[in-house]
Every structure is written in C-alpha cells, then in structure tokens.
Inverse folding.
C-alpha cells in the first residue's frame, strides 16, 4: 500500500520561499506511469491544482503559479519536494501530495500559514 506523508514549515512569513516534502513509502516514485501532484486548499475554498512531476522527472505547473513554483524529486530518498517562492497570506492553505495512477493515493495534508 502506497502511503504519502507531507511535511512543511507550518508557519512562514510573506516573501519567503517555502519547501514542502512528500515522503512516499510502499512504492517507488519512479514506477512507470506514476505521477506526483501537489494540490492545495485555502480555508473556505476548493482544491487548487499546483503542479505535477512524473515518474521520469518531467514537470508541469499551473499557469497561475508557474513563475513561483518548482517541483523536484530525490529518488534516493523516494520523495518529492514542492517549493513556492514569494509567498503571501493568500498562499495559506492545506497542501496535499497526491500520487500514483491518477489521484489514487493522498497524503493527509500539511497546513501552511503565511503571516507576518
């Protein structure tokens, strides 16, 4: 059973760059046709797709976030990392790592609050 565990800073200040990690267990991030997606949900709002990294390392980002977002992977640690730069309070949200084929596997999410 594939399990995903997100971790992040919890609290960040405006203009900082935050880094969120998704540790994957029970399966490899390089498994053919597996994709690893970052989604977030601001308080009181719906899910927002941020970007994805594929089993072979290729990435695609939301046009609205592309200039501030990067996704990378560490195959030796079997984890995926999201970086979001120049954060503002509007980036406060629960951030989810979702993966496998489609959106089969979900992490429990990690709360990030951006406040001065």
């Amino acid at each position: 059973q594939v399990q995903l565990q997100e971790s992040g800073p919890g609290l960040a200040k405006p203009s900082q760059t935050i880094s969120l990690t998704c540790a994957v267990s029970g399966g490899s991030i390089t498994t053919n046709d597996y994709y690893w997606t970052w989604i977030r949900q601001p308080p009181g709002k719906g899910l927002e797709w941020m970007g994805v990294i594929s089993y072979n390392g290729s990435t695609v980002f939301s046009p609205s976030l592309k200039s501030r977002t990067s996704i990378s992977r560490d195959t030796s640690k079997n984890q995926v990392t999201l970086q979001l730069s120049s954060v503002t309070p509007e980036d406060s949200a629960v951030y989810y790592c979702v993966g496998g084929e489609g959106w089969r596997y979900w992490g429990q999410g990690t709360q990030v609050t951006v406040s001065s």
Notes: Residues 30 and 55 are 4 Å apart (CA to CA). The chain has a mean pLDDT of 97. The chain has no helices and eleven strands.
